[in-house]
Amino acid sequence: MKENEVLVKVEHLSKKFCKDLKTSLWYGVKDLYSNVLGNTQPRNLRPKEFWAVKDINFELRRGECLGLIGHNGAGKSTLLKILNGLINPDEGKVTIKGRVGALIELGAGFNPILSGRENIYNNGAILGFTRKEIDTKVEAIIDFAEIREFIDMPVQNYSSGMKVRLGFAVAAQLEPDVLLIDEVLAVGDLGFVLKCYKTIDKILPRTAIIFVSHSMPMVSRICNQIILLDNGTTKFQDKDVSKAIDLYYTRFVQNESNLLFTDETLELNEVKLLDCNKNSDNLYQLNWLDDLKIYFRFKLKKSIKNIPIFAIVILDKEQRPAAYLDLNNDFSNLEIKNNFIEFVVKHNKVQFSKGVYSVDIVVKREKTKNVYLRQNNILSFQIKHDLDIFPPFLLTSDFQKV
Amino acid sequence: MALETKIYQKENNTNIAKLLKDSIKDIYNSRFLSKQLAVRDIKAQYRQSFLGIIWAFITPLTTAFVWIFLNLTGTIRLTDTGIPYPVYAFSGTLLWSIIKEAIDAPMSSTTAAKGLLSKINFPKEALLVSGIYKLLFNSLVKIIILLVFLVVFGVGFHSSLLLFPFAFLGAILFGTTIGLFITPIGMLYNDIKKIISLGLGFLMYATPVVYAIPKEGLMKTLMELNPFTPIISTTRAFIVGQSPEYLAYYGWVLAVCIPLLVVGLLLYRISIPILVERMSA
């Protein structure tokens, strides 16, 4: 067995779907008829059809993991279904060598009335195990799922997390050459998710994996090549995983600020970054270790006695809060002039890692209560650096010989 | 070990021998799956029911009782059947229900597995086989009741009863073949299921189920043309020990069914990806 044999080869793969149910069913009848006769005609779009997947090409070897990313409806799941042999392509060709395992739906074939133990057999049978294989593995499965106490209870009384655990425990016994993973691992608690990824890490060296996910941290962790799909076509395809992820995120950069709450005391009039250029997409760009200077101007609609507290939150590309800028205090010397409050917040030598960040703001009367205004995504900026890392911070360091 | 290579492309494999070989290989390899699916459904069905197994034979039994009652009270006058009428009526409704279930089985098994079909690749033929297993199980219960009828009404057991298992399998073969042909279209349009159930409701009266074939007239011609007639009447003849009237026609129907069953299996295999594409969300 060669270590780097090509296990999956996809050439010019295309698939069309129909937007209208009635028409779709009628095309189904026509396809039934023509396919029985062996349809070799080139497939063109008929009225109300569109290409769900268009001209996809890739090769995958043992030990490699391909990440399929893209917005909802980009064609990821359709592509996976074709690779799994559930539906036939309309153009192109897929060649797959070896046993194909699919983590697309966990717990397939479970019957809610029957017990967990009985359902291990149902699910195992559907995944292609023989009775003997399941007999020898059933204890391992129960242990892996960590639900021994409830194994003889009807599955309808399981929590959704328990069902997924049991389903994954059965599927983890597969020893596939090619493994297709859809967004199934998102369910379940953290311990379980970690367990899943540990299992995947374990089988990765022997397997070619195709991984569909919206979770970029996971993608960046296990994939070594990426296809970014956009409306069924390949928008980006390379071994440069972080570049693909960047592109993925830029698609979701929101330019619209979003006012969550206001008691009409003040409104945000203007916000901008100072000493900083914008790129062609109107996005501020900073280099790592540049100074971050944010200019704010608020207009007061009611008069207030004291200067409010400004809480400025910076969120990373996954919309996780990454940092707070320290709050203003009495020594900040902010003042109200003609019903305007104007100030600049400065943070020296920003140590965010490469990527796009956005800013939310909360204006309060006091530190912990009486919110005047809460507004999200008032500003976005991009940090540029050569190093592609996933965590939101790249801290300066100083290596010294001891 | 050389790895198995799968190729998916738009061109179907039109090599019939290869398709058939794959289909039979899948049926054989998935024997555990089909059994497991059948056991799952049967278990679940009875575990969630109080009357349990009674539901398997209550429908043909009640239909038979209605006709037995109509006949006993003289509301309708039926041609002499040569055997006690209750045995005639019950064996008729029972065989009819078995054939009807056999026709429905491929489509209902496939429909029930819709969710699976669009998510997991497994040998689809296992659905058909599990449908037949379930059918056999339900029929077994009905047949036991029928045997009780034979004793109670003094018909007794004849040596021709030994032929009954074969005739029974013949009836299933007949029903399954019809079922396989309607499944692809029936999976796309709900109408098919309704049309079939409506059509079979009428067809029952053109088949010697609850009354014998009249001596003359249009009905006689219709009933003798109806391919369900030889299946029902021959099987019943084996049960009660009469000499079968339409044995030649029976032989023809089964002889035609065997190649058609093979065609049906291939049709099923080819059509599944198209059906999955149209029904998966």
From TrEMBL, chain B:
Membrane topology designation: Multi-pass membrane protein
Record key words, sorted: Cell inner membrane, Cell membrane, Membrane, Transmembrane, Transmembrane helix, Transport
Membrane listed as a keyword: yes
Transmembrane segments: 50-70, 82-99, 135-157, 163-183, 195-213, 249-270
Main location: membrane
Keyword Cell inner membrane applies: yes
UniProt domain ABC transmembrane type-2: residue ranges: 51-271
Location of this chain's protein in the cell: Cell inner membrane
Family, similarity comment: Belongs to the ABC-2 integral membrane protein family.
Protein name: ABC transporter permease
Organism: Lutibacter aestuarii
